[in-house]
Specification:
Oligomer: single chain
Distance between the termini: 108 Å
Helix content: 40-55%
Number of helices: 19
Shape: globular
CATH topology of the largest domain: Four Helix Bundle (Hemerythrin (Met), subunit A)
Structural class: alpha+beta
Largest sheet: 5 strands, antiparallel
CATH architecture of the largest domain: Up-down Bundle
Number of strands: 12
């Protein structure tokens, strides 16, 4: 091997050249020049090399949104030269495996575009005013809106696991493009539904833009994302994705056959956390912590301590007399019996101390049969009762802990926004698309510092009016414990008029001895 070839095969040199190409594109350089540099330097390029180069750019201060805008150009430069060192396993070819399902959906989506939508668009333009082709275009675009399920499964099942293995930049970029595609499809549907119709070339431009982005995303999913996750995902990870997919739904295919890993596969599986990609990305994780979420706000300890003190004073807790009181002492201290708890009513004529005399902090008890009882100040519930309550609450709950990681969510089978088990333990900031990351961080920062205790939003979502509330949660010592998200479909509530009283309920009827129905309560 010549000295020049040895340089070309040097990992550091290859990384530098990829970064050089990406920077050239980011700074507005020509595609042809970038492609020429690539072809001169590389015969093939590995997915891990592209990923590491993109993360190096983020570490240097480039917003992930900027990479998102250029990721199609990146893909075009490297297209045809990306290697996949790990061949597809037989499992991934089996019906129901998440990879098989993803590729099947992409095949149908591609067919919908190439064999129906685009031909109908062309024939409609040529015909002048053929209503049949217009109706077929409208139907195809409506079918295309179901791509949301394909992307939602990816964002809620695959992306959280990528985060777990340290692959955090690609999900941010892809999620941003997913949202762009959703918007493009929505815009195309809006145009073909207008009366009168806009200029045909306006419609053509909208449809062609959606088609281009969707085809590029198919390439990224199958040629970049799947090979990338194959290096780190275990068979148990794929099993979790398969098990949680049905509630979200599928795009243009019937629910697939159930697939699950066998007991032998699970027993033989070992975590692949030492893979090449995971190691490269984890080495950069600390340096990228602030860059992953642009504009992250720092929590001012002095403001936080002041707000905790103020909160305690509002509850009646004596403020610490010395600045040497540590957070650890506060976190482990027993609840002060003199604390005025907000959940304890003070009888008329009684002092706060008298009202608190019988206050009992929440605790877990075991009865004689070994069954768990949760004892609150106001009563007890067993685990079955508590679980049942969560299932019938008319709101969706998600709890994010003090470290801003998703810890728990309720599930009654009909959530407004989907949640999957894969999201538990994930940084909540990564559960939101990049365009809303800074707003989420601002709310959490304010909660940590005690600057506010709730934030409310209401949106129109898929034909429903949705009320979303975030609450700062504190423990019995007033320390910040996390954030509770409460989501409610209020569409029917907003439609209520007049009143319905308990007395308006139909009078219950009972059977008399003769078998005739009569109203409860006997004769008048």
């Amino acid at each position: 091997m010549s000295a020049a070839d040895q340089i070309k095969h040097n990992a550091v040199y290859r990384q530098q050249k990829i970064v050089e190409i990406l920077k050239l594109l980011h700074n507005g350089g020509s595609f042809e020049k970038a492609k020429a540099i690539f072809d001169e330097t590389f015969d093939q390029v590995d997915v891990a090399e592209i990923t590491s180069a993109e993360r190096e750019l983020i570490a240097s201060g480039l917003n992930p949104m900027e990479i998102q805008h250029l990721c199609n150009v990146h893909a075009a430069v490297f297209k045809g030269k990306i290697t996949d060192e790990q061949t597809t396993t037989p499992d991934q070819e089996q019906p129901g495996h998440p990879v098989q399902v993803l590729k099947l959906e992409n095949l149908i989506i591609g067919s919908l575009l190439q064999d129906e939508l685009l031909p109908c668009l062309k024939k409609w333009q040529q015909s002048g005013s053929d209503d049949v082709y217009l109706q077929r275009m409208r139907k195809a675009l409506q079918d295309l809106t179901t791509i949301d399920r394909h992307y939602t499964r990816k964002e809620n099942l695959i992306f959280p696991l990528m985060d777990k293995y340290g692959i955090t930049a690609p999900p941010k970029v892809m999620w941003g493009v997913d949202d762009q595609i959703r918007d493009l499809i929505k815009q195309a549907n809006k145009l073909v539904a207008q009366e009168p119709l806009p200029d045909k070339y306006v419609i053509e431009t909208a449809i062609e833009a959606a088609n281009k982005e969707i085809k590029e995303m198919i390439f990224k999913e199958e040629e970049i994302m799947v090979p990338m996750v194959n290096e780190v995902f275990t068979v148990a990870d794929w099993g979790l994705i398969a098990a949680e997919s049905d509630p979200i739904g599928y795009t243009l295919i019937a629910p697939p056959l159930p697939w699950r890993p066998t007991a032998a596969q699970l027993a033989a599986a070992t975590p692949q956390v030492d893979s090449k990609i995971a190691n490269e990305l984890n080495e950069m994780a600390q340096a990228l912590a602030d860059q992953q979420t642009p504009g992250r706000l720092k929590i001012d300890p002095q403001v936080k301590n002041y707000k905790v003190k103020e909160f305690k004073e509002q509850l009646g807790t004596p403020a610490p007399s010395s600045a040497s009181t540590t957070d650890t002492q506060a976190a482990t201290a027993e609840p002060d019996p003199a604390v005025v708890r907000p959940d304890v009513a003070t009888p008329a004529g009684s002092s706060a101390k008298e009202a608190m005399a019988d206050y009992q902090p929440t605790q877990l008890l075991l009865n004689a049969q070994g069954q768990a009882q949760i004892a609150f100040n106001n009563g007890q519930l067993d685990l079955g009762e508590l679980t049942g309550i969560f299932k019938v609450l008319p709101v969706d709950l998600t709890f994010v802990d003090a470290n801003d990681q998703v810890a728990w969510f309720s599930d009654d089978g009909d959530r407004v926004f989907p949640r999957t088990k894969a999201v538990v333990g994930r940084a909540v900031i990564n559960c939101h698309p990049p365009k809303s990351a800074d707003r989420v961080l601002k709310i959490l920062s304010d909660f940590h510092q005690g600057l506010r205790d709730h934030a409310d939003f209401w949106i129109d979502f898929r034909g429903r009016r949705v009320y979303i509330r975030y609450f700062a949660v504190h423990d019995e010592q007033g320390q910040y414990a996390g954030c509770l998200e409460v989501t409610q479909d209020i569409t029917k509530i907003q439609q209520l008029t007049g009143q319905k009283r308990l007395e308006d309920e139909p009078t219950p009827t009972v059977k008399d001895p003769a078998g005739a129905d009569s109203e409860a309560g006997g004769d008048d």
